[in-house]
Amino acid sequence: MRFYLTNKDRLNAYNAQLDDLCKPALRYFLAALGFLAILVPAALLLFRLETKPGFLDLVFFIVGAVLIRAWIIAPVIKRRKISNGNAPAQMTNISIDEDTISRESGNTPEDPLEWSEINKIVDTENGVIIYPNKSKLIWLPKRVFESEAVLDEFLNLAGRKGML
Questions:
Q1: With contact defined as beta carbons under 8 Å apart, do 92 and 2 qualify?
Q2: Domain count, the chain
Q3: DSSP designation for 112
Q4: DSSP labels for 2-33?
Q5: Which structural domain, as residue segments, surrounds residue 130?
Q6: Which of these, 23, 41, 49, 159, could form a disulfide with 57 (CB 3.0-4.6 Å)?
Q7: pTM listed for this prediction
Q8: Are 79 and 97 members of one domain?
Q9: Rounded to whole angstroms, what are the CA distances from 22 to 26, 27, 58?
Q10: Does residue 2 form part of some domain?
Q11: Domain with 151 in it: what CATH number?
């Protein structure tokens, strides 16, 4: 398979990776908890102006700020960087067989991955994520598969190898 990875592909890969890490409903719930952790102590301080903020108020504020940063601010900034990025579309060539997955980005070949080196494969709405390790991913947009049958064949191979 030869294909170009565009900024839209990179954005889809990031969104799919984020959804695989933590489902959207849970992310929104954690962000709401973050807002509550900030708003409740702030409201209590407004209604009791004679007292200073206590240690618990500070803890709630810090926890709230961390939750909001992790689940709202950081993803928005990352998406904006990807969308506004000027990274050129990069030609990627991937070969998949019974033993290995070989990848070449641009003109730089990478070491072939044996199936035993892959942690997991996740089928998403817009593509397939291959995790060779926890910090790296290979994104295959669904448009690169010639047909639904080729995608199913790849997913069946991944299932036989115990990756799904």
A1: yes
A2: 2
A3: P
A4: EEEE-HHHHHHHHHHHHHHHS-HHHHHHHHHH
A5: 90-160
A6: 41
A7: 0.76
A8: no
A9: 7, 6, 27
A10: no
A11: 2.30.29.30
